[in-house]
Amino acid sequence: MRKVLPLICFIICMSAQTLPADELRGGWVTAWNKGLFTQSQADATISDAKRAGLNALLVQVRKVGDAYYESSIEPRGDNLASGFDPLAYMVKTGHSSGIQVHAWVNICRIWREKEPPIDPKHIVNRHPEWLNVDYGGHSRASDGMFLDPGVPEAREYTASLVADIAKRYDIDGIHLDYIRYPGKEWGYSPTALARYRAETGASGKPKPEDRKWLRWRAEKVTEMLGLIRKRVRAVKPNVVISAATVTWGDCCPSFSENLACKLTCQDWNDWLDTGLLDANVPMNYRSESSSKSAAQFRAWLNGFKKWNGGRPTYVGLDVHNNNSAGIVRQIEAVRKAGLQGYVLFSFNESALRNATVAALAKQHPNTGNAGSIEVIASRQMFDKGVRCAMANQLGMAEVYFKKAVELEPGYIEAHFRLGRVYLRERNYASAKEEFEAVLKLDPTHSGAKAELDAMKLNLD
């Protein structure tokens, strides 16, 4: 009986997890629509995530200078049930279902309505001197009011706020959105202009397209991200830091020519190269209904393969302008490109969510032995390995991926991820062995082919 009881406990614990996916499969849950305002909404969101095979939810906890969590810093968000803490509940319930929960924080956009906020605690009212101003002196962009990254106090305030969330909640990640300027005409707050002149020796008022001025503003956004990372790492070293990044317009051959750099001063390629981000979540919002848009979507996938700094890319997909068949096609394209996952925008209560969940449930991998103890344990080891790899804990990632393939020798993605860990550890012989194992199991696996080709080029 002593031997049977631990086995029963093991089976119960394993069965409480959803079947972990071979990639990050996520959904953004906004605070604009139903999905997190009450316990019943949160339960429905998590239940639908499990049905769709998602393993991560990016839960919006700061929408426009407000708090969808317990905060003493900013005013409580609208529509929340009395006494309900959606972040705490989502973390607890999501984790018990095998789903990661990332706190999604809007950084620079702090208001959207035409009328200013009434609450005196709101940052717009407390610090109007931190507001971003355009070349003509206006403080309202087409999509709302923004903080100016060129104001040191605004950067410090924001970093401390994000660190407070990381410190008090058992989240898997911090996900940053609107960490940018509204456009190239912005950044002209008096404080930011004074700092620019003091730091560069410039005089007068630079034109929006001035290259030196554009470069300085991009540096301030990067400084903001760096400060957020430093503050978060100080309180929670292993949390994954990601960002929703801009992919406006066509994908250009040179990253510096993309609109993310030219209009918003958001140099996310540099953030990945320098390790300020652990993962990229580019908003590749294109519809499959237009051949031009579908081609743009796939061109950007190729861009993500070039501009990743060796870090995961989870492609943002637009549910609202695609039908469920289009979303399935885009997910297939993401996989074919060898990228590491996707995030659906959005995963709030709607008929669209219902249709998407139904379509994705049909795509769920389901082998004949998927319920066996060995396979369940293998998938759990794989999921742990992914988390460690994302946190740059390569030694532990290697241990977990090895265990996954030991438990389930035919687990293709575990072999592939183990090969990538070996690559990062510069153990090229073992990496080659794992990629060859992948191709033996699946000769069409483009990711393994690409890695072997790249290794051959680098070693020749």
Write the layout of secondary structure elements.
Blueprint: H1 4-15, E1 24-29, H2 39-52, E2 56-62, H3 86-96, E3 100-106, E4 109-111, H4 123-126, E5 145-146, H5 152-168, E6 173-177, H6 190-200, H7 211-235, E7 240-245, H8 259-262, H9 268-273, E8 279-282, H10 291-306, E9 314-318, H11 324-336, E10 341-345, H12 351-363, H13 373-390, H14 394-407, H15 412-424, H16 428-441, H17 446-459
Parallel strand pairs: 1-2, 1-10, 2-3, 3-6, 6-7, 7-8, 9-10
Antiparallel strand pairs: 4-5
Helix pairs in contact: 2-3, 2-12, 5-7, 11-12, 13-14, 14-15, 15-16, 16-17
Write a concise keyword list for the protein shown above.
TIM Barrel; Serine Threonine Protein Phosphatase 5, Tetratricopeptide repeat; 2 domains; two-stranded antiparallel ribbon; disordered N terminus
Summary?
This protein is of the alpha/beta class. Helices cover 48% and strands 11% of the residues. The chain is built from 17 helices and ten strands.
Structural account:
With 460 residues, the protein is of the alpha/beta class. It has 2 domains: 341 residues, Alpha-Beta Barrel (TIM Barrel), CATH 3.20.20; 87 residues, Serine Threonine Protein Phosphatase 5, Tetratricopeptide repeat, CATH 1.25.40.10. The strands form 2 sheets. It has an 8-stranded parallel beta sheet with strand order 8-7-6-3-2-1-10-9. A two-stranded antiparallel sheet has the order 4-5. The longest helix is centred in the middle third of the chain and has 25 residues. The N terminus is likely disordered.
